[in-house]
Structures are given as structure tokens and as C-alpha cells.
Amino acid sequence: MMPLFSPRGLVRWLAGSLTCATLLLAGCTSALFRARSTDEGIDVQELAPIPEDGVRLIREFTAPWGTNFSTLEGVALVTGLNRTGSDPPPSAQRQTLISEMQTHDVKNPNFILSSPDTSLVLVRAFLPPGIQRGDRIDVEVRVPGRSETSSLRNGWLMQTRLREVAVLDNTLRTGRVEALSEGPVIYDAAFEGTEDVVRQVRGQVLGGATAMTSRKMGLMVRSENHSIRTSTLIAAAINSRFYTYDRGVKKGVATPKRDNYIELEVHPRYKSNLGRYMRVVRSIAIRESAAERVDRLERLSGRLRDPSTAAGAALQLEAIGREAKGVLQQALRAEDPEVRFYAAETLAYLNDQSAAETLGQTARENHTFRWHAMAALSAMQHASAHDELSRLLHVESAETRYAAFMALHSRNPMDSLVRGKLLDGLFTVHRVESEGSPLIHLSRSRRAEIVIFGQEVALRPPTFLYAGDQIMLKGDDQGRIQVLRFVSQEDDQRIVCSPQLGEVIEAIVELGGGYADVIQFLQEAREANDLDARIVVDALPSGGRVYRRSTGEDSAKESSESDSSGWTSPLPDLFRTRPSDGEVERDEDSRLDVAAPEVPSRSWRSRLGSWFAGE
């Protein structure tokens, strides 16, 4: 058998290998192996840089990719209006809708559009980063500016294909179908109890769109650094810290796809806080020895005790992982509440049960860190986190109670504390035992749901109340509630139930009432003093909250970035349903409202011939 190499060939091969190694060390592949890169290109939400004492972090060589919201739009039809619709005037939007209806094999679309029970609407939705195929998102609905439609009450959005829309070379272009939307429209005026003409013709379909694609996230290697070896080295560093399981097989979350791009899977513990996940990944050190790790842990321990550098130190400690737990547990005993919070938040994402008590206290007492504490508790798998969230259901703060409900629901929707009852497929009612004052929470994002906080929330027998145009409620002489439905040319219907609020709502739905009708009933009952309970709508944050270190007090001031006097951070995805106002165009700037998109092709593989089957 011939040897693979002759002695002379072996010498030549070794010489060539040494030459290649010398060239590599000389810097022929990437700046990663030479001088450190600067930190330019970090987005404005990045925490203030901390001197790394020679330790190279992934963030020095990469920038996040795929962390933005993607805007989808469409022209659609709303049906079921009680003569409050209109025949749309000739326009690009009308022609687009007719073409769309024809792809669904709808016969005589112009006749349908002329009905006062229908209206052309513009539809918009936002695909969040990391969304997976089959996930559901909210849909915004509004009539165009020149429409004669007066109200979207009781409307039903017919199935609509949503696409990305862009202007290229002064021409409106539409992309592939990214989501399908359909469902009942909850008009905005239902929540305000107002006849405002603008709110009458705008609304939402809560969770009304299904994503047709999954959005990838990853890291782009900066142009001065990228090479196949750089991408591979960065992916290896990430995979040494984060991994998942695929059919029982352990696999890393990072996959180098090109010399300048590394694709990331989302670790399950960060599913409700993708922004933090990306920052932690970019805080991982590259090619750090065990001795260097020990030295850095000691330096980070000192920085963690200083409130001005604690946030950045905590991210690096989280990126290190289990080896950092001892340092973080010591910080839980610090006097400064900010330091204790950062340590507890990091320990929660390391699934350490010692974090639960501090996070629970933070959620109760600290306005600024409340949402981040709740998200961290929801990420923990220990019973201690469940116990802390359960205690928060009893506080007086409406936003704290509802945030605790959301966190418990995200952990396990079938938890007996938060499990709800779906009524006629329209919305869910949750009855939550709470020692706080009676509270009713109405959702106008994610899911159509009513959460009743209290021991026994009951309705005083009213003289009369309305739930929509056809359902009336009144009390009888035995303290019970009569729910009656009157419809022209139909027999009257009546249900008698106890005054318990949950039973009253079920009776309204049984007689044909919807989410908006129940909301109207609740508002009328509260105004008539027939219901002793606060009613709040979407008790969720609207922007950043700054912690003022100079006074040690938190502030409700909204901000988009941190400054020298305080701290702020993007909202966890658990409480964020759409991009902030500055990230998207205003409603009036919808591209489909000013130009005509390309007409959809008639050659689509799937035709939905039963589009109007429910009419």
C-alpha cells in the first residue's frame, strides 16, 4: 500500500502549512485577529460602553439584523355593517379591492361594494422580530379619507392578504403575502364610549392576522471584519453559551450563513424579550481563556456594585452564564435598589430561583423597572417565580395586576389562576381571585379578553342597560338579571341569570352579543353606579420610563434612550405589541392611501371560493 505522502512531499506540505499560518497571524483574514474594532454602529439603545481591558466582545464586530418591525398593508372589505357602510368612489383602492375579490372567485364585486352594509377599508399589521409562521398579530383597520362610511361597528373583516408595500423608482411595489387576516372589527369608539366620528371608522381585529412566514434574526459582521473564519469563530463563541434541542439532539443557536452573516435561533428563555437576548449575545467574549475569565469576573463584580455601570456589567455576567451566579447572588444583598434589580434580572434569565423575591419587590415598588421585572419572572421556570407573580395579583395597581396576569398566562395559559372561558369563539373571560379592589380589564391588543379581578364582582339589578342595539338588561324583584333581545320580525328572547358579572356576560353572548356590546354594557353599568369596579383599558406601558439616580426615585417620563441622569431600556416583547410611534409612519401616511399597488395575479395556486360563505 502506497503511503499518503512521500517524505519529501510531507516536508513540502508542512512548509506550506506554516506559511499559511504565518500569513493568518500577520492579519490576512480579519481585523478580529489584529487590532480591536471600534464600537461605532451600535444602536442608540445600546448601554454605555464599558472598558473591556483587552477582552473582545461580539458587539465590537457585529450589528443586529432582523430586529425591526415589518409593516404589512392591504385593501380589504368589511361586511356586516348596519347601513353605516358606503359604496367607495372610483379610485386605485377600489380597483385593487375588486381585483382581490376576483382572485377569490367573488361574482359581481361591484354589486357587493354598493351595499350600505359593506365598506372598503385599509388594513395594516406589524410583523414583530422573531415571529414564527402561524403566530397571530393584531390588525389595524380604517376607512380611507374620502369614504362616506360612518361607522365600523359590528363589522367583519373578510379574509385579506397582507404584503409589504414600498415605493421604488416612483412606483408602488408590493411583495409576497406575509400574513392573512380576518375577523370581527372592534371599532375604537367602543373603548372610549364616544361618538367621535374618527374613532367610529377606525378599529382593530385583535389577533386577527396569521403570519405566513417566519422572520429570521441574526448578526451582521461589519465590513472591516467579515470573513468566513470570523463568522465561524463568532458562531462558536455563541454556541458555547446558548443552545437548544432539536428532537432531543443538542444544537447551538448560531449558524454562520455567509462571511458577513450569522443566523440566530431564539433561546426559549428569551422568547418574550428578544431585545435583551440580542444584547446578551453581543456581550459574549471571543476566545477568552479560563484565567482571563476569572480576572474579568472580578472586574465585573466591582462594576456591578456601581449603579452607573451595573447595567452593562450585568449583561456581560449574563453572557458568561453559570460561572457568574456567585457574583450576582452577592449583589442581591447590595444597598442600592438599582444594583439589586440588575443582579436579580440577570439571575432570572439564568433561571436561578434566588432572583424571584427581589423581582417581586421591584415590581411592587419600582415604577421604572416593573415591566422588566415581570418579564424576567415569566422567563423563570421555578415555582418561586410563580408564587411572586401570584402575589402581585392582589396589589392595588391596575398595571401591576394585569402585568402579573400576562406573565402568568405566558408561562402557562392553562394555569388555574388565569385560565379563561372562550365565549362563542369571540372573546375570553378570565375570573381572577384577587384581594385588591374590584377591577375589570379590557384588552384592545393581542387578544379580545375581559379579565375580572375580585372575589365576587356583581351587578346591581339595573332599571335598564343596553348591550348594543338589540340587547337590554334589567333587574327583577328577586334581585336577578333579565337579559332580553329584541329583533324586528323575530320572537323576543330572554335569559334570567344571577347578578354575578361573569354569568351576565355569558348571557349577553348567548343572545348574540359581541365583544363591543359587552364593553358598552360595562361602561353604562359603571356610569349608572350599577357596578362597583374600576374599568381600565390596556393597562400597558406606552414608552420608556427613566430611573433618576440623583434622587433614587423613578419617573414616568417617556424617553427613547438613556442619559447621564438616569436609565431606560426598551420594553420586553411580552408587553410590546407594535413599534413605537417614531418607528412607523402615521396612519395618514399609509402608502395604499395615496397610490395603487400592483394588481394581484390571478394565477395563485389556491383560490378561496367560499370567501363570502358566511354572508
How does this structure look, described?
By secondary structure, this protein is α+β, with helices and mostly antiparallel strands. Among the domains are: 43-66 and 216-277, no CATH class; 70-215, no CATH class; 421-537, no CATH class. The protein contains 17 helices and 25 strands. A six-stranded antiparallel β-barrel has the order 2-3-4-8-6-5. It has a five-stranded mixed sheet with strand order 14-15-17-16-22, with helices on both faces. A four-stranded antiparallel sheet has the order 1-9-13-12, with helices on one face. The longest helix has 20 residues, at 7-26. Mean pLDDT is 82; it is low at 1-52, 555-567 and 595-615.
* Strand arrangement in the largest pleated sheet: 2-3-4-8-6-5
Average predicted confidence as pLDDT = 82
Count of discrete alpha- or pi-helical segments spanning 4 or more residues: 17
Count of strand segments: 25
**Proportion of residues in helical segments:** 25-40%
Distance between the termini: 81 Å
Major beta sheet summary: 6 strands, antiparallel, barrel
* Beta-strand content bin: 15-25%
Low-pLDDT runs: 1-52, 555-567, 595-615
Overall radius of gyration: 29 Å
Which class do the helix and strand fractions yield? alpha+beta
Shape, per Cα inertia axes: flat
Describe the structure concisely.
The chain is α+β, with helices and mostly antiparallel strands. 29% of the residues lie in helices and 22% in strands. Among the domains are: 43-66 and 216-277, no CATH class; 70-215, no CATH class; 421-537, no CATH class.
